[in-house]
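Ticket #261: bound-state structure for 4-(N,N-dimethylamino)cinnamoyl-COA.
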Amino acid sequence: MTEYKNVLTEKKDNVLIVTIQREKALNALNDETVAELQQVFDAFSADADLRCAILTGAGPKAFVAGADITELSKLDVAGAVETAARGLKLAATIQNSPKPVIAAINGFALGGGCEIAMACDIRIASEKARLGQPEINLGIIPGYGGTQRLSRLVGRGKAMQMILGGDMINAAEAYRVGLVDEIYPPEELMDKAMEMATALAGKPPVAVTATKKAINDGLNMTLDDGCNLEKDIFSKLFATDDQTEGMAAFMERRKANFTGK
Ligand code: DAK
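RESOLUTION: The complex was predicted; output attached.
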């Protein structure tokens, strides 16, 4: 597998574990790390052997403590446009990947870290995790899609409170408001992530991709348009081998053997 400076990738069967490792800076996203993550997730999306990914941070303290403030502090407007474009592209690559990506939030997920986690399909967190969008305290606003994804996940009022206030919330509160989907003791987090990833990797790949598209694209539409989109995607699945196999296996009371066709 390709070696990266700030990102470790490991394959376990058909699951890819992606660990951001800049522990000395609490895994803050500098340009180099964003570029490496872009390569990793482009390759993941294109690799037919991989069915699910887990994104996490190295060490006990942080998932990602945000964009790298040392680099941010040197940006002018033109530089900020480029930085935002690269971060938004990475977030879109994760969200639009044909395969699910689970964020395993092992500690601080702040600013750009919270935003990358929100681009993932499912977020599970350590009970010790703390999440937030503290950009306001630096005189800026979220730049990797945070104003948009946070308000869609937790609603307008809570997003306003978190982004205007800039305070962190703990894992229990993040779970309560729907920012994370499950919380676990720290020592169980990666096992639970792997369990979830393995289960998702066993689902029929075409229907998995279809689910992501229907939910993600539908969220940008009116309810009627979204239901029409669902109808189109749903009906096309009846031309797949996995639909025939899934239903045959149910009727024959056996485990389905999905091929992704
Ligand atoms: N960037 C760079 N270094 C960081 C960092 C960060 N975001 N967060 C932590 N570090 C570094 C610290 O500087 C420190 O380095 P040394 O002093 O040891 O060299 C080391 O990590 C350990 O951090 P602390 O000593 O501060 O550790 P504590 O346990 O005391 O505190 C903390 C942990 C997470 C509460 C604290 O480190 C902290 O507040 N960190 C900053 C959190 C933050 O504000 N994050 C949001 C960053 S802003 C844009 C696109 C996107 C964005 C902006 C613009 N474009 C459109 C241009 C996104 C912005 C952000 O994410």
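RESOLUTION NOTES: The longest helix spans residues 77-96.
TICKET STATUS: resolved
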